[in-house]
Specification:
alpha+beta; 38% strand; 5-stranded antiparallel sheet; single chain
Length: 371
């Protein structure tokens, strides 16, 4: 059986990130960015994509769109999100722990009538591909132990042998096509029987087998531009909820930091002058919260607090501190900000150091100080 590559042009791209909720321990907040990258030559108005539904699949987590708790209880949906051409929108979801495999809409809570068999097929294909790559790597490593150069003829023979073995494996799978079709039908509701073996198991249960720390999303979209309506389905799989190891490879940036950083402070402050004593008494509390994103691995870190060269305010309190957090632990570091004049200021002047790697954060903490 021959295989052919088919180019598929995506209409949307999806990326997700998960951070723990410091107000509700055990729950997580997931931000999903959706980009409209359609390139089918339609006008701007016809290229708008409407997000019809977001289905979450996970073994131990239920996905609910933030702000739709009442809608889920009543079986209704929030207004659909529309994404213009080359635009990007961010949707936020709450992840709640459950005790069983969940495949349900994050918009309405409905758990039926989803075309999730393609997600199971993609996961099975990915497992099969990874298994083949691992096998080929082991063969090459074993061949490299001889430390002898190989002739072109030997390399060609080995390549031909590998192709023959792969073709033989494909022929074995061909006899199971009928059984696979029944399996796909069983997966149509997202509740596959999981009777397949190894990478060939196309059930959702196999996709999330033993993975308590990931969530998989199926984004259903629709475009009404042009002569006919177009429908699509995009899969964002293996979004990590609970990291089980230290992340980062010595690069700065919040993406690789194993810690989550947030702050509690007033975003609107009234400036008060003591003209008689020429003394400024305008200040507000500024609590910095650092959380360990890992499930069990303790993290030692150092936090450095700066002013970013700004003379309009001072952060009073701890300037440098070293702490160790247990898995999923967090610590609150109280500070205070004294303002010397009105204005809009970014209080994000925090740097974290973990294992010799320094992490700075691009998201701002704005505060407005006015008279």
């Amino acid at each position: 059986m021959q295989s052919h590559e088919v180019q598929v042009l995506r209409s949307i791209t999806v990326s997700g990130s998960v951070l723990p909720s410091y107000t509700n321990p055990g729950e997580y907040l997931m931000s999903v960015q959706i980009n409209n990258v359609r390139g089918d030559g339609l006008s701007l108005e016809q290229s708008v994509v409407s997000v019809e539904d977001v289905v979450g699949v996970s073994r131990f987590w239920r996905c609910e769109r933030v702000g739709n708790e009442k809608g889920i209880a009543e079986g209704s949906k929030l207004e659909k999100m529309k994404v213009g051409w080359q635009e990007q929108v961010t949707m936020h979801f709450l992840l709640k722990p459950v005790a069983q495999l969940v495949a349900a809409s994050a918009m309405s809570g409905n758990s039926k009538n989803f075309n999730l068999q393609f997600m199971g097929l993609e996961a099975a294909a990915s497992r099969t591909t990874e298994a083949k790559k691992k096998q080929l790597k082991q063969i090459r490593n074993a061949e490299g132990e001889d430390h002898l150069p190989k002739s072109i003829q030997e390399i060609r023979r080995e390549a031909q042998n590998r192709e023959a073995e792969e073709e033989e494996e494909e022929n074995k799978e061909k006899g199971k096509e009928k059984e696979a079709k029944h399996q796909i039908e069983a997966n149509r509701e997202g509740r596959g029987t999981g009777k397949g073996k190894g990478g060939g198991d196309t059930s959702l249960a196999a996709m999330v087998r033993g993975e308590a720390s990931v969530v998989n999303l199926s984004i259903v979209w629709r475009s009404s531009g042009g002569e006919i309506d177009r429908f699509g389905q995009h899969h964002a799989t293996n979004i990590i909820i609970q990291p089980t190891h230290k992340e980062g490879n010595g690069h700065d940036g919040e993406g690789g930091c194993p810690l989550h950083l947030c702050a509690e402070y007033d975003t609107d402050v009234t400036f008060v002058d003591d003209n008689k004593n020429n003394n400024n008494i305008t200040s507000t509390s500024f609590n910095i919260v650092v959380s360990n994103r890992n499930t069990a691995l303790p993290i030692k870190f150092k936090m450095l607090v700066g002013n970013g060269g700004c003379d309009s305010y001072d952060i009073v309190g701890v300037r440098e501190i070293e702490c160790e957090l247990e898995g999923m632990g967090h610590v609150t570091i109280p500070e205070r900000v004294v303002f010397h004049e009105p204005g809009n200021f970014n209080l994000q002047q925090i740097k974290l150091e973990v294992g010799g790697c320094g992490y700075t954060f691009s998201f701002p903490w704005w505060v407005r100080v006015h008279r």
